[in-house]
């Protein structure tokens, strides 16, 4: 790994905030998925026990609604994934922490979620100092107040978040929810970022190629303008 590239990234407070917030959301998703899966199974079993005639293929047709606190967290997640520069301010991060705390207050009786929030809170309030053995302090963080992470740990966190961002762009392009020009702009921003960070670029080549291929597929139908003549059709 190129330590100078890592140091440069972590010296940018807004980028570090973006990575911290994104990582916290992925941690939150991980702990909620297990809880939600168990609750759905328990609910389904209870429903079948109360109404056995429904059968295993029965579906629920009633709509579901997110709580206002959940909608705030979803909005934060979208802001992180759609951030063109992959940066958020410290003010945004403090507001994000408050929204996460308010949301998780609804799950105070779930031990694994309480434990996850303790870790999230620690990450959000720390300086995220990166400990590089036998090296000077490269990222400008104060070790006395930081959470010590190795360069490989930070790289793994960055890679996970960037893969999530690229997957988001891919799904939007696949479903054509966003104009092709906007998809291209978002992709170019990520490419430019990766051109300056070789340690991350090498692990995301396949993801970028998949997006490039999909973008080209969407561009082909519009490559010929209406009424355009082929060389054979010219007089």
TrEMBL record:
Name used for this protein in its record:
Uncharacterized protein
The annotated region (Disordered) lies at: 213-235
Source organism superkingdom: Eukaryota
This chain is encoded by the gene named CXorf38
Q: Which InterPro entries match?
A: DUF4559
Source organism per entry reads Felis catus (Cat)
């Amino acid at each position: 790994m190129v330590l100078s590239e890592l140091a440069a990234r972590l010296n940018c407070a807004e980028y570090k905030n973006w990575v911290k917030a994104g990582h916290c959301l992925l941690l939150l998703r991980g702990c909620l998925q297990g809880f939600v899966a168990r609750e759905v199974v328990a609910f389904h079993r209870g429903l079948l026990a109360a109404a056995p005639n429904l059968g295993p293929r029965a579906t629920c047709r009633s709509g579901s609604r997110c709580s206002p606190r959940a909608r705030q967290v979803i909005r934060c997640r979208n802001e992180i994934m759609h951030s063109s520069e992959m940066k958020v301010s410290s003010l945004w991060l403090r507001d994000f922490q408050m929204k996460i705390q308010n949301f998780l207050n609804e799950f105070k009786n779930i031990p694994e979620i309480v434990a996850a929030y303790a870790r999230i809170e620690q990450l959000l309030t720390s300086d995220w100092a990166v400990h590089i053995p036998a090296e000077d302090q490269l990222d400008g963080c104060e070790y006395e107040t930081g959470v010590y992470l190795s360069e490989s740990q930070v790289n793994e966190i960055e890679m996970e978040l960037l893969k999530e961002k690229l997957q988001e762009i891919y799904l939007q392009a696949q479903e054509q929810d966003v104009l092709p020009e906007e998809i291209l702009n978002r992709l170019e921003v990520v490419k430019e970022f990766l051109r300056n960070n070789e340690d991350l670029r090498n692990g995301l080549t396949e993801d970028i190629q998949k997006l490039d291929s999909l973008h080209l597929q969407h561009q082909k139908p519009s490559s010929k303008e209406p009424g355009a003549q082929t060389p054979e059709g010219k007089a």
